[in-house]
Amino acid sequence: MAEIPVEYNPWVDLLRPYEPGKPVEELARELGVEPDAVVKLASNENALGPSPAAVRALQQAASRMHLYPDGSCFYLARRVSQKLGVTPDWLVFGSGSNELIVLLALVFLRPGVTAVMSQKSFLIYRLVSRTVGAEPIEVPMKGWTIDTHALQEAIGEDCRLVFIANPNNPTGTAVDRENLEAFLDSLPGHVLAVVDEAYVEFMPEDQTPDLISRMKNGRMICSLRTFSKIYGLAGLRIGYCVAPPPVASLLQRVRQPFNVNSAAQVAALAALDDEDHVRRTLKLVASERQFLESELRDLGLEYVPSVTNFMLVRTGDGRRTFAALQERHIIVRPMDVYGLSDFVRVTIGTHEQNQRLIVALRDLLNGRGG
Ligand SMILES: Cc1ncc(COP(=O)(O)O)c(C=O)c1O
Questions:
Q1: Best substitution site from 169, 225, 260 to test ligand 1's pocket, by max atoms within 8 Å of Cβ?
Q2: How far is CA 58 from CA 87, 154, 242, in A?
Q3: Which of the four, 129, 162, 368, 369, has the lowest number of CB atoms within 10 Å?
Q4: Is the pLDDT of residue 370 over 70?
């Protein structure tokens, strides 16, 4: 309880600030080294950096930063809608897909209703549900995969949203396509399914569920996408929601007028058509995932097979691994907040970065930590 004379919403006491990946600059300051000496493998960013086309577009647009952005993201909405085969009124853009989760909560959640989600899934769903006083119901996983049956069982009359990250963070796994589609088809009409597809571009296309045709058939589903991962624009904060127009228009009502800055809009538009950067990113992630898997097997470290650009690795006391790797200028993510205190989550980096990680892990295992 905060000791202030102004009454505040009591559920705020249940919230704990989200602990993001440690910034490169912070560790560099702590260790007294240059930021370039630090390798960050903690936030599932793009190892190749931003799309070069996005960087060029941003540089050209810089002289217009005195103007407010286009609140409707007109050009971006037009391009994304062409790609997806929907009209622009299906799209709502946000300051990262994170903001879309907040907008969904503002529209659909309140005290007295529930949001259903999986236990080891993106923590923001729980945080945001609690922020608006709703009750998050977290159901167990089936091994390392989201259990759609358990989600279904937890959906009651009071449920408004069900969150499914596919692929899931932090496990890196995806739900089997037929299973997920059957789950979505079986949902009661009073529940909106929020399929968070932040990493969808990394998974095999034939395993990706067909959400838009279901939405077109009247199913209450929306999909969240981001420019933070495959397009490498995490620092600009831009993502979007694809939803049937009646749902999208509700989100538009609670959106702040200039929620997506003009730099993000310009860069995202250029990144969307930078197929070369996407292709190179996918190639790197696929080959480096294999490299890491094989090296981890050699080290005798268990990992969770991933379809994304990150993976869970069981190192024993993840906080200790996190601290010891920092001594070697490498930032990974401890997983105790997800109830996985034996694990760290590692973003798949460049070959050089991954090699540094493996050398450091080998040293830790051989007792040459620190
Ligand atoms: C599953 C998932 N959803 C959403 C996000 C948020 O992405 P952003 O707000 O950068 O678009 C992340 C970020 O790590 C994520 O892992």
A1: 169
A2: 26, 45, 25
A3: 368
A4: no
